[in-house]
Amino acid sequence: MRVHVLPSGLIHTNAYLLTPAGGGQAVLIDAPGEVWGKVAPILERERSSLGSLWLTHGHWDHTQGAAEVVRRTGARVVAHRDDRVLLETPGIMLEIAGPGLELEPVRVDLWAEDGQALEALGQKVRVGHVPGHCPGSLMFYFADEASLFSGDVLFRGAVGRTDLPGGSFEDLERSIRTKIYSLPDETRVFPGHGGPTTVGEEKADNPYVNG
Fold it and tell me: What pLDDT score was predicted for residue 22?
């Protein structure tokens, strides 16, 4: 599995394009604004097609480019039901995103559940529901790759903000301790903003939630 890190949109949100060696069905995790322009040439170069778009949560900076991605590829969208209102009526986020921002509704094909296994890139991927930053926050864990895509739940040396509607530090801390810090220390964590880290590093050094 190749992991292409594609910071995009107004606040440089990380999208992750996961492509299989030798071509085939790729997965995109999150779709910030204008991400399609970065995704398309990689798919062409690697002789891949986009089969799925997995959304870590419904905040505008992770979903602004989702409708375009779906129009161009027909990708199957996966998200959590607790963020349904954000995905289907994104205009309610304009108060925090800023006036004049163009946000399109996102059609979701699968409302994923905590503990559900998805099939992708020849392996099973475990979904975790990790609320706190956003009610419908999801994480995607590739055990075979020792890799976790955490959205805005956990960053290198930081955690997701909890002062937005639906946020809760108590829930966030519980999500991190029970769902992320329970993974092997060597697990690589790919967050929604900034560079990667590992579970072990954050358990030892994260000033907000340590092990």
Answer: 82
